[in-house]
Amino acid sequence: MPANAEATEDANGGAGGEPAANVVSVPGKSDLELGRQLAQENCARCHATGESGESPLTGAPAFRDLSKRYPVETLEEALAEGIITGHPDMPEFILQPDEIAAFIGYLKTIQTGE
């Protein structure tokens, strides 16, 4: 077998040209801790950012219930561009791509479900 054919088999997941299964990245503990820390530092003034407790600001949704409103992944673009809301009390902040991934990963771990 030519060397380049072997490389092609490896890239395609083995003999027969079958593509390898997609690998889903699961945030590691440090990523989840970063996500939790970002939520705490930037959002806990108004929102409940953990698995329990009430939001300090009446009407501010608890982060554990966000998936009942919409998929948490939809926050990704807003976090990259800077969240702007209809009320002046919410601070605007922009996260870096690795911070966004950590934040979204953390949010996914605390969701209570549909």
Summarize it.
This is C-type cytochrome. By secondary structure, the chain is mainly α.
Question: What is the topological layout?
Answer:
Elements: H1 3-11, H2 29-43, H3 75-81, H4 97-110
Can you walk me through this structure?
- The protein has 114 residues and is mainly α.
- It has one domain (26-110): Cytochrome c-like domain (Cytochrome Bc1 Complex, Chain D, domain 2, Orthogonal Bundle), CATH 1.10.760.10.
- It has helices at 3-11, 29-43, 75-81, 97-110.
- Helix 2 (29-43) crosses helix 4.
- The longest helix has 15 residues, at 29-43.
- The radius of gyration is 20 Å and the shape is globular.
- 13% of the residues are buried.
- Residues 1-26 have low confidence and may be disordered.
Entry keywords:
114 residues; Cytochrome Bc1 Complex, Chain D, domain 2; 4 helices; globular
What's the CATH topology name?
Answer: Cytochrome Bc1 Complex, Chain D, domain 2
Structural class: mainly alpha
What is the assigned CATH homologous superfamily?
A: Cytochrome c-like domain
Low-confidence stretches: 1-26
